[in-house]
Amino acid sequence: MTKRREHDEGSLRTFVNELHARRPPLQRVPGTAVFLNRGKTTTPLAMRANVEHNHILHEHVVILTIETLPVPHVPAAERLAIDDLGYADDGITHVEARFGYMDDPNVPGVLRMAAGAGLECPLEVDEASYFLSTIELTMGAAPGMSRWRKHLFIATSSITADAAEYFGLPRGRTVIMGSRVEV
Question: For residues 71 and 152, which has the higher predicted lDDT (pLDDT)?
Fold first, then answer.
């Protein structure tokens, strides 16, 4: 599943380079979009879908990765890593936030911290739109797993915490965009 998801997401650096090479340029709309993502190597599915289907991207884009380390707490001075992804003036930034397993991974709080750390674009944290990517697993004919195991895998994969609630995202400004993958 991880390989399939990584394939669907594609390389983040390649995607950003393609945005810069696009002719005519992609329409940029006012505001800040925050895309939560598992890492810095792949493109958030929600960001890719927004560009491919809506043909737009917000003026200010933060791709946010939350990493939970095997320690109780991460000091504030070690919490953030910021990367402009090769372009210091395009309004697209990757932020990695590190937490210990006892820390509260509150995304708006992390963004306020990042805004004070010198991002290339201003952050309107209280007006930002948050985008989550989700994958719906469906039964398929692919070999490698018996039918009963596929049923069990699909059933257990749907028993997850509500990401918007866990990360403290405001419900009225959170968009969940999904795709389907056969197992």
Answer: 71
HEC readout, 139-180: CCCCCCCCHHHHHHHHHHHCCCCCHHHHCCCCHHHEEEEEEE
Supply the DSSP symbol for 103: S
Q: Sheet harboring 174-182: ordered strands across?
A: 80-83, 92-100, 56-69, 27-37, 129-138, 174-182
Measured CA to CA, the distance from residue 181 to residue 117 in angstroms comes to 38
Query: Is the pLDDT assigned to residue 66 strictly greater than 90?
Result: yes
Rounded Cα gap, residues 150 and 162, in angstroms? 23
**What's the predicted TM-score (pTM) here?**
0.82
Q: Look up residue 151 and give its two tokens.
A: 């049923």
* Rama region for 64: left / alpha / beta (φ>0; ψ in -120 to 50; rest): beta
Indicate the pLDDT class of residue 147, thresholds 50, 70 and 90: confident
